[in-house]
């Protein structure tokens, strides 16, 4: 299947950000199947690690352990994150079916006080806190608000059943020793819920300047080292925000001039919610780099950072498969 034929609408690309952060090195261990790394090429969410239902076909967990995380209580896939009814309307993702943690429980990157980190880091929120409802390891990954079928609604969240199989079969949680369990201490992870470009954007003009002199306007390579451009467009009239932001990746984008899943996405957050001055500002969140539905690249990255030879067969549709650190260099010049 050629995934480049499929494109999300701009608003869907903006809110579909939950992420699984796994180790490519760990995935490279041969486990048999049609591919040489993860066992077989992923073609859709059905045969990805984000299928947590009984139809999960992955031979191992992302770190090479067995069995893979899944529940034998339902064959549904989407229900572990989304529900058609009764979702959490406090979540900045569609019809979210999981209970969100208190933002104050997380230790953020900014707590390190590093001199090179001059962006403002808002309280954990937006799409990031939805991702962390699985990936902070504090609740069972088969715990949902609205279980499949009738009579399974519980706003406090409850496990789908008792037939969970995986790292922690008793509690259903991600094992603390594998990297996709980030925990609540995020100080050793790439900062999230932070303003893009240091001090934020000073104008809504496409490719406009930021408030940080290290990120000037126009085509200065410090802003976009690969020649990409910062873009924005009007949000739908029904949205509480007015502007959507992204870095356009030129010929590598599915649709030039429109935000899509191969671009680096920024999430517009409001000053009233973040306490960060500047009105509407683009923020870096988990979903800026990861897309839980994009199976083209390892670790659900929007753009590949390079495909190890052992995984070349498993990711035939990878974006930028031969360009090392392609995703990182979209924003960072080194």
What is the overall shape? globular
Nearest-angstrom radius of gyration? 19 Å
Give the ordered list of helices and strands: HHEHEEEEEEEHEHH
Strand content: 5-15%
Mean pLDDT: 80
- Total helices: the number is 6
What helical percentage do the residues reach? under 10%
Ends distance: 35 Å
Give the strand tally.
Answer: 9
Order of strands, main sheet, comes to: 5-9-8-7-6
Tell me the structural class.
little secondary structure
Unreliable parts? 1-37, 219-223
Biggest β-sheet description? 5 strands, antiparallel
Tell me what you see in this structure.
The chain is low in regular secondary structure. Helices cover 10% and strands 12% of the residues. The strands form three sheets. It has a five-stranded antiparallel sheet with strand order 5-9-8-7-6. The chain has a two-stranded antiparallel ribbon with strand order 1-4. A two-stranded antiparallel sheet has the order 2-3. Mean pLDDT is 80; it is low at 1-37 and 219-223.
């Amino acid at each position: 299947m050629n995934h480049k034929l499929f494109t999300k609408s701009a608003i869907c690309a903006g809110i579909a950000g939950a992420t699984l952060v796994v180790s490519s090195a760990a995935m490279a261990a041969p486990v048999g199947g049609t591919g040489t790394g993860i066992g077989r090429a992923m073609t859709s969410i059905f045969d990805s690690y984000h299928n947590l239902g009984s139809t999960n076909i992955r031979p191992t967990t992302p770190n090479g352990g067995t069995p893979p995380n899944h529940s034998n209580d339902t064959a549904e896939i989407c229900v572990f994150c989304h529900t058609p009814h009764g979702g959490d309307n406090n979540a900045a993702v569609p019809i979210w079916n999981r209970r969100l943690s208190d933002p104050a429980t997380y230790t953020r990157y900014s707590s390190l006080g590093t001199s090179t980190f001059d962006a403002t880091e808002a309280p954990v929120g937006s799409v990031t806190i939805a991702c962390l409802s699985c990936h902070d390891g504090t609740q069972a990954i088969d715990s949902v608000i609205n279980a499949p079928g009738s009579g399974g609604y519980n706003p406090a969240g409850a496990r789908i059943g008792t037939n969970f199989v995986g790292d922690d079969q008793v509690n259903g949680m991600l094992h603390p020793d594998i990297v996709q369990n980030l925990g609540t201490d995020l100080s050793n992870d790439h900062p999230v819920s932070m303003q893009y470009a240091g001090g934020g954007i000073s104008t809504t003009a496409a490719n406009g300047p930021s408030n940080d002199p290290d990120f000037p306007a126009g085509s200065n390579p410090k802003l976009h080292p690969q020649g990409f451009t910062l873009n924005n467009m009007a949000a739908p009239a029904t949205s509480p925000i007015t502007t959507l932001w992204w870095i356009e990746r030129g010929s590598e984008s599915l649709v030039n001039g429109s935000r899509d899943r191969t671009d680096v996405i920024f999430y517009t957050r409001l000053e009233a919610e973040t306490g960060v001055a500047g009105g509407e500002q683009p923020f870096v969140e988990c979903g800026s780099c990861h897309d839980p539905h994009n199976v083209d690249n390892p670790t659900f990255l929007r753009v590949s950072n390079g495909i190890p030879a052992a995984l070349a067969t498993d990711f035939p549709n990878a974006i930028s498969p031969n360009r090392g650190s392609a995703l990182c260099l979209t924003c960072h010049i080194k």
